[in-house]
Design brief:
Layout: E1 4-13, E2 21-30, E3 33-38, E4 48-51, E5 55-59, E6 61-66, H1 82-92, H2 99-115, E7 118-125, H3 131-144, E8 147-152, H4 165-175, E9 184-189, H5 196-205, E10 209-213, H6 226-232, E11 241-244, H7 250-258, E12 262-265, H8 267-273, H9 280-285, E13 291-292, H10 304-318, H11 334-348, E14 366-370, H12 382-388, E15 395-400, E16 403-407, E17 410-411, H13 415-433
Parallel strand pairs: 1-4, 1-5, 6-7, 7-8, 8-9, 9-10, 10-11, 11-12, 12-13
Antiparallel strand pairs: 1-2, 2-3, 5-14, 14-15, 15-16, 16-17
Helix pairs in contact: 2-3, 2-13, 10-11, 11-12
Bound molecules: zinc ion.
Length: 444
């Protein structure tokens, strides 16, 4: 029997040009699909009515670059540079992290994302020395009910060297399409130096790939123009998500656009850790629709409001003329940034047909943001309020495929259980890896 939910009376910002923005509008959900976006729908046949008055109703946010397992390292690298991070975190951690730590980090990170209105995440799962680590991460994603592109990687190659035939067979087995996965899709997260076997495997399995590309990381590895090199080897492939690209040339960004690839920008982390300048403005100039990612909560915030504001302020600052008397005419708008965080992200994940906008026929992934709170009222321009003023505290209700993960401001998770999990994981990592990479267990 069809389950019907009516989301009533919100200010709908659909991010679909054909649907537009509709004040005082209803959304009818049938099972996991959006059936209608219209004012005045009849509530009589609805099994459940969600009162969305005094809220902006948005498509769920899509995070296109996030290492969920690293949630267990929250805040431990806030001052660190990328070069320093490579030495401290990647030096010892791959040998300390157990499958239960991957489970804990992924579960905590996915619930954190849902709490913030992120309904889809590209999980760049790059620590998987064993099958058990990967299965633990996938199990955690399933338990939270988030939509995810699980991009499997093992960039540290701890026990099973990346690129080896043994690794390839294991990835084949892991990523073999699974009929029962309603919310998960699968892809590959490449490790440097991007061997041809990686690309061949992604093509063979017909799954998307993602990689860190063109990043400044002085102290860890020399700068390289990865995209030019890949292009010279004929390896650029449609649907690939290139993360950061902070030192990519304009010609490299154009190569991504021309090959049907996508750019993922993690503006907060890139600026704080010294990856280089976020490429929002330059990517737009080359015809790319950027998407946004939190990357690592060991160094930065895990919500999309922070990413949107970092992206907006940095990209606008990039276009301020050097001449203080020259007029300032920024092209980028708050709505553009909201598009990066929704439709842009969905396109990058290869999920543009099913999420990223409130379009009849797409999955019912939606978020309501309260506009009657102290930091969001009065909401003269709802898009402006979402991008400039709203925060996680104003995220009221979050649906993924029509299923509530947050309702009336309350996350539908076992919070005491998550606290225990976080405390145990921090204690284990502290024991095995020491102060440099793990939170003190006493801090939970
Ligand atoms: Zn990353």
């Amino acid at each position: 029997m069809t389950h019907r939910i009516l989301v009533r009376g919100g200010h709908v910002v659909s991010m679909d040009d054909a649907v537009g923005d509709r004040p005082g509008c209803d959304i009818l959900i049938e099972d996991d699909l959006i059936a209608a976006v219209e004012p005045g729908l009849d509530p009589a046949g609805a099994d459940e009515v969600i009162d969305a008055r005094d809220t902006v109703v948005l498509p769920g946010f899509v995070d296109t670059h996030r290492h969920l397992w690293m949630t267990v390292l929250r805040g431990t690298q806030a001052d660190e540079t990328l070069g320093g991070y490579q030495q401290t975190v990647q030096g010892s951690l791959p040998f300390a992290v157990q499958p239960q730590d991957v489970y804990a980090g992924t579960l905590l990170g996915a619930w954190e994302a849902l709490n913030a209105g992120i309904t889809t995440v590209l999980d760049y799962a790059h620590l998987n020395p064993t099958l058990e680590h990967a299965e633990a991460g996938i199990r955690a994603l399933r338990e939270t009910g988030i939509r995810a592109l699980y991009a499997h990687g093992s960039v540290f190659g701890v026990r099973r060297p990346w690129g080896s035939p043994e690794q390839a067979e294991y990835v084949r087995e892991l990523l073999r399409p699974r009929q029962d996965d309603r919310l998960l899709t699968f892809g590959i997260a490449f490790g440097a130096p991007y061997g041809e076997s990686d690309w061949a495997l992604a093509a063979e399995l017909d799954v998307p790939a993602t990689l860190h590309a063109c990043v400044r990381s002085a102290g860890a590895w020399p700068a390289s123009h990865t995209i030019e090199e890949l292009n010279a080897r004929g390896l650029l492939r449609a649907g690939t998500v290139y993360s950061h690209c902070t030192i990519a040339t304009d010609a490299e960004l154009k190569l991504i656009a021309d090959s049907g690839g996508h750019v993922s920008v993690s503006p907060y982390v890139e600026m704080v850790m010294g990856h280089g300048r976020p490429v929002i403005a330059r990517a737009l100039a080359q015809g790319l629709l950027p998407s946004l990612g939190a990357d690592v909560v060991s160094s930065g915030p895990g919500d999309m409001f922070s990413q949107m504001r970092a992206a907006f302020s940095q990209a606008r600052a990039e276009t301020v003329p050097d001449d203080p008397d020259a007029p300032y005419r920024p092209g980028l708008t708050a709505r553009d940034v909201l598009r990066f965080a929704t439709a842009g992200g969905a396109a990058a994940c290869g999920l543009g047909d099913i999420t990223g906008s409130l379009t009849p026929g797409k999955r019912a992934d939606l978020v309501t943001v309260r506009t009657d709170q102290i930091n969001t009222m009065p909401a003269g321009d709802p898009v402006g309020v979402v991008v400039a003023n709203a925060d996680v505290s104003t995220v009221d209700t979050v649906l993924v495929g029509g299923v509530a993960r947050k309702r009336d401001g309350r996350l539908l998770a076992d919070l005491p259980g998550l606290r225990d999990l976080a405390r145990d994981a921090a204690a284990r990592l502290h024991r095995h890896a020491g102060n440099s990479v793990a939170a003190h267990p006493g801090k939970g």
